[in-house]
User: Fold these one by one.
Assistant:
Number 1:
Amino acid sequence: MREKETTLYIGPQHPGITGNMMVKIKIKGDTVVSSSTHVGYLHRAFEKLIEQRNWLQSFTILCRFCVPEPDPMELTYARAVEEIEGREVPERGKWIRVLVMELARLQSFMLWYGGQSGSAGLYTLGQWSVGDRNYVLDLFEELTGGRVYHMFIWPGGVRRDLPKGFKDKALRTMDYLEKRLVQYNKLLFDNVIFQKRAQGVGIIPKDKAIEWGVVGPPLRGCGIKSDVRIDEPYEVYDKLDFIVPTFEGGDVWARALVRREEIKQSISIIRQVLEKMPEGEYYNKIPNPMKWKIPAGEAYVRTESVRGEVGFYVVSDGTERPRRVHVKGAAYTHAFTVLDKILPGQNISDVSFILNSMGACPPEIER
Amino acid sequence: MSFFDLKGLLQPLTGIRQFGNKPHTIKFPDQTKKTADRYRGLHYNDLDVCIGCGNCSTICQNAAIDMIQLDGIEGKPGDSGLRPRVDNGRCCWCALCVEVCPTGSLNLTKDYIFVSENPDDFLWIPGVKNPEGKNNLSFTSTTETSLSMYQRVPLRELDPHDRVKSFAEVILGYNEEEARLEAQRCISCGLCTEVCPDHMHIPEYINAIAQGNDDDALRIIYDNNPFPEMCGKVCTRRCESVCALTHRGKEFDPGRDEGAVAIRFLKRYATEAYPTAEKIKEIVNPEIKEANGYKVAIIGAGPGGLTAGYYLALQGYDVTIFEARAHAGGMTFYGIPKYRFPEDSVDKQVEYMEKVGVKFKYNTKVGKDIKFEDLHAKYNAIFMSVGFQKAWNLGIENENIPGAISAVDYLGKINAGESYDVGKKVAVIGGGNVAIDGARVSARYGADVTILYRRRIEDMPADWEEIEAAQHEGVNIITQAIPTRIIKGDNGKVKAIEYLKAEMVADDKGGRPRPVAIEGSETILEVDTVIGAIGQEGDYSFIPETFQKKIQIERGRILVNEDMQTGDSKVFAGGDSVNRRADAISAIADAYKAVKAIDKMLMNK
């Protein structure tokens, strides 16, 4: 039978994508011939909105860059502003920031479990991990007052100190999650269906990874050790003991293994932070936000998110508003250029599976 | 690996054990989720604490909050009468509004469920919609976490030991850095503008200072106050008493400025940034209209007269100010000691007014050197701002013997450069700013000064910093003391003053407590001079009787309509002799109103 080339649209509404984005694929039979990513479905002009707001107000927009993991955006922006202004963050504030960052990584990985297993047709684990994620969100609620959008890290430190009894509750949650990870393994990594689906699929060649701009878990899944937390330690990461896991292969399987290891590392970091956190001030208060000016200057600051490196380029012209804020999110390369390169040749049923393993977050592309 | 890998097939089946576990979910509505103590849920606003400053509305980057009028809540000094309304369809629960609420009235609650079919219901007036929210607060702010800056930048002043040696200005004011920092505290709510008698554009000029744009600040100030350096130094500053920051600033600064933005000293900074009249003219660069041929006479070169003169001159009127004394400034020159308001500050501002065309006739007392009726005939309009020149009598024995003098006369002599020997011991009677001025001036002549005041120290109408400064300078204050007589010595001069101790009796009608003399508590204080400072009144003898009747003077005050016009349509009046406020800024406000009315009348607008 003669094989005809067919065009298929995955998205813009698709459970495999967090946010609205479309992947247009051409298939022959059930094999992808070519792919191109189309965006433009949720353009909210984040960067322009930030320029319209004063230096503090925009921190409520920043979290909208990435629903599954909003905190790196807040932290990166705050650090950029602090760098231009020369504002110091009190020691305890830095520790709380790291705690928030790692809790954010943790809950984001739990959500990834759901997406990755769900796109392989393994729905049970998704129910579990998203349910267990709520225990992390409970911690966020205690700490920040919000469950998904925390709006907690802002220039000068963090908004509030740890509430009473937070440490014990957080440690109990960590113990629980650690036990659950064993169960997750049985359902996902020991599952022959997942193994078959993930191994050798969506390969990023190691020699191309850096050239293509791959970062974060996908890069570490190619066996390249790269993590901003280690390469350019910020806040108190240099005082913490953790490893950056790498796996060879560059396929969905390797990326999944990286994430599985990183969950364990995050739990370990959270325990260390809770134990080592010093007492003291947590916030170096900014002046009246309506009249707060930042001296003219610019800064590029990067932070490690679960998707990889997040960078903020912030320019101040000495007024109450940023002159320019440019956001570089990991998804820009992962869901755009890299995806177009790795999808051809793959089975159509693996498209959203691969997409999920790349950690695409469309608002990061359309900022 | 193959699909017949037994472990890989069986392991996932162990998940069946999950059936026995407690579910993550809860059964709503039988069970409700208990939210965290810090949960950012629906808003609650304590309507009694809220002052309607609108800071929440300003910071909200979603434009979810607007300020609306509510039934039963009236605006009053320090309260706009507006309350926030939250559009829950726009709100993102970031709680920035909570962080910037200066009074702490707006908070978030633990409640998060609200269901309605009507979209309009989601426009909430927090506090009205959910009065029960008061008991369910979660995300709140304290002065520690709030982004409002409650602490005032401290003001530099001369050391008390040094300042009693001279009449050098005591308060040194803010330098540029301090002023910018202090100006930054303002939240631009505008509650101050409402209570300022002159409705000065306070948030605007403070904002200009915060922006580092002193030129703009000066221009904005001169828009409706031509005497700002005086206001910057000695204004009674009602504005500061209603500042939004005073509500929680009390924690840091109890009983004093209560954390209010130092509006007065910021104005002073803006004017002192320009040291000469030329510079002021260059910066303000007012538009002076072409001469319109109308002539206006102004009686009294006090703050009211100067204001009317300045703005009328700008409108193209031929303005002449008649002043009985040798110097312009009125009570601000003759009544206020030089360590509070130096002479060159007055001169600078008067010089600037001369530059815009105001003519001054000094040593010209209307009624003596020039007749009131002549002015009335020759000029198209008259503005009178003559103030209260005559001191009230103490009403006690021997108050007219040598050694007893009123504070107004005493300060007038000293400020005019004359001398008056107060001797070694001085008693000042009264508790207002004039009494304190009399005491502090006497202290500068090396006298041992005692203030006798009928009530308690907290009842004194004088500014707290004046009272404190007097105490620092060694002035002794005896409270609850009612003078009964002055004792004459053999030389015919004052020898001592006798007073009765008083006890404070609560007022049955709910007024402030009254002092009641304790019988038999006579105390004698040996002094060389007694300075009376219990109040002043107007002296209208310069107006002929026929005019007095037409102008209408009742119980020492000139009656005016809302345009400051008296019974005689050509005559306008303002200042102490009209209003009951007895401060310079009210005189300026009156004059500003009168200028508009005079312009309207003469130009038939």
Note: The longest strand of chain B covers residues 494-505.
Number 2:
Amino acid sequence: MLMEKKEEKLFAEDNVYISSKTTAEEVIQEISDKLLADGLVKPAFYENVIGREKDFPTGIDLNVVNESLPNIAIPHTEGEFVNVRRVIPVHLEHPVTFKNMIDPSASMEVKFLFMILNNDPEGQSNILAQIMNFCTTTNANDLGAFFKSTDKKAIYEFLNRSFKDQKA
Amino acid sequence: MIKILAACGAGVNSSHQIKDALEKEMSNRGYNVKCDAVMVKDINEDMINRYDIFTPIAKTDLGFTPSIPVIDAGPILYRISAMAAPVYDKVEETIKEKGLK
């Protein structure tokens, strides 16, 4: 019998966060602690994400997509430090400074994180490509409202719906 | 076959997106391209010498000067044609200039 491989969901309602921290280190520490408690990452996750962020920053300027959109960042590290394949959405109550991924000499204020946990980079469709498709093809008004939302359930449902539609 | 080396910090997200995009677009343009995605920290002179073009996400200090053409591929990550096209054009231009096959 032909078995269809079940693709795990990229988002989990319990792993949507709102952070009031004001620096990248504080936010990543706060979320890393929660992910570690949930068994989603390994103990060395935080130090590796922070170390990587300094050498290879992950801020993405969405101004070039639409001037009304806030910037995002996609903190992540190698697969050996995570236990799952998942995206962790984090709404930032205050702007947090990150360096630009494609121009590390430039800083930017970021208002939303998609922390990528990826223990299977070869396996399925590219997570970053899906995030960028979401940011560049979602209706700008809907996306603007999404980035402002502090309702974790609404954030989860919007992402789940949008990423599902993307694959259809 | 034309061999391209893509690289990013973790070797799991950005570089794989660059790899997928370059292989697809260069194939569409009629070139036989194979792209590998690696972590920047794993690159040394021996490794890079086995490739024809190096496509990092951003300007990258490898600790040595690469002997092959370097093309910053970061704009591809946006998945917006207008941003990606200049990168693809530069890769194609380099393939033609160097007579790569």
Note: The interface with chain B takes residues 52, 55-56, 60, 64-65, 74, 76-79, 101-104, 116, 118, 121-122, 126-129, 132-133, 136 of chain A (CB under 8 Å).
Number 3:
Amino acid sequence: MSDKQTSYWQANLRLILILLVIWFVVPFLGGIVFVEYFNQFYLGGYKLGFWIAQQGSIYLFVVLIFAYAHLMNKLDKRYSDQAADGESD
Amino acid sequence: MDLQTLTYIVVGLTFATYIGIAFWARAGSTKEFYVAGGGVNPVANGMATAADWMSAASFISMAGLIGFSYHGYGGSVFLLGWTGGYVLLAMCLAPYLRAYGKFTVPEFIGDRYYSNTARVVAVLCLLVASITYVIGQMKGIGVAFSRFLELPYEQGLTAGMVVVLIYAVMGGMKGITYTQIAQYVVLITAYTIPAIFISITLTGNPVPQLGLGSTLLADGTHLLQKLDQVVTDLGFQEYTSGPRLSTLNMFFYTMSLMIGTAGLPHVIIRFFTVPSVRDARISAGWALLFIAILYTTAPAVAGMARLNLMTTLEPVPGKYLNYDERPQWFKNWETTGLLKFEDKNDDGKIQYSADKETNEMVKIDNDILVLANPEIAKLPNWVIALVAAGGLAAALSTAAGLLLAISSAISHDLLKGVFMPRISERAELNAGRLAMTFTVLLAGYLGFNPPDFAAGTVALAFGLAASSLFPALMLGIFYKRMNTAGAVAGMLTGISLTLFYVFQHKGIMFIPETAFLGDMPPNWFFGIEPNAIGAAAALFNFAVAIVVCRFTAEPPEKVQQLVDNIRAPAAS
């Protein structure tokens, strides 16, 4: 695997790791493990922990996927531009 | 026009649309049959995936499961579990499997682990998970017909089979994709309209997601606060808190559903139909967005319909409804057996409570929440007809996706891949159609004679996918050193552990008498229930695979090159 490919893959893994940490922390810690703690706060008529478990996490999942797709498109573009530059040199 | 006629017209129109689409989208090649030619627009694929994914269980049963059986907050396992898997799919599986560019999941496993054994084991895992899943859909079709059109279950099931047979056999993945798009439109409209109306009636807010967090028009208290109070007064668990069994169990349950979602082949293959890797990523986002519309509405339907039902039965605390004054919808659903009242103290009033001794609502089926919702909210007949069409669309679209996953595993992986590698494309396409016909008949047969284990099937399908295919796919992409021995050992470990734990609790093939070790306490593995065991078994799968792999030869250069290729930047 070329250096360029390796650094592309490392960047991808870093991005996945960051997004998966958010994916894990919000529903599993906020909505399940520490739900009672968050339930003392309110969001309108919703207890916050309950809202995270039944609404908020789902919105977050959608945002995470679109964010990943967007950031990876930028990463792809950067690396394919580099590849094109490399060929023209 | 009476409801019956109207329902026939609405359901008839949707079926005619599906068949019309099937004629228009006939498959001419194996590529069209397996992956719709690989040219599906990512937004369209997102919509098709959403319909593929949301089954009769999501549409008819989920809100009731949340509202009744899982006491509100406990139902979060379904909401989180059946959506969160898409994040894993979008980041960890779909783009790389799309980059590989083949037709089926076992095909990737066979090539990545350079072994027909691995491929056949993957086919077996796929067949077990998908067939158990499809039985539930066939039952859903029969039940939806019999409840809405008052047709006998068998006739309803036959009608559903004929429609699926026509469009799945003719169009393969191509026909299925375009019918699923139409089915999504039908099912999401049918789900949201009653939800919007019930939200307006109770809270004045037309957005159910906001309505659930609003105050009631009736007395100005917050809806959820009122609900908590009403249910606890009757001795039930508080609606907005209290885990399902235990926090640890909820954690594992949610995780099992998530990784099961990501590992289910009929979902993964939907991402083989888009033109590029970038499209596969964004398409997963669209899919989840379309799914989220229903999944964020469902908890609102659950809470509001539950409150509506409770206040109908007990309008003022301590003052119960007279049985003779029960509303029309109550009578309608009594005749179907979904609601059952037993006047234990002979006072002619309906006492509903958590105490089994005095509770007089001896049966409230979970499905009643969605099915009776339009009638409880006093909506016009055409909405009820639309809900019927929506329930059928949900069951048909999921059944079709599963049938394609099963038949392509038979014709492409077993026949072309292992037994007759030199078969021509024409012959493989015919074999695919034959396998599809056979699969529809098999699923129909199982729908007519549901085996004892049908009730537990969906949970088992998720557990199996989570514990067998998901780890093998993840390791294949992210761990270059993973080899045949490790992957096969891991898959077999995961699938056996899941089967062992489920069968130990519920009997072999769910025949209760055969629950070996029957004297062990329920949920003996750290209090985790059988439905939630998939995530734990997946951990064992990962561990075994990595240990075995460490002691065996590393994969050949060619395979390591394959892994590099699927990880490469996508062409823009």
Note: The CA atoms of residues 8 and 79 of chain A lie 7 Å apart.
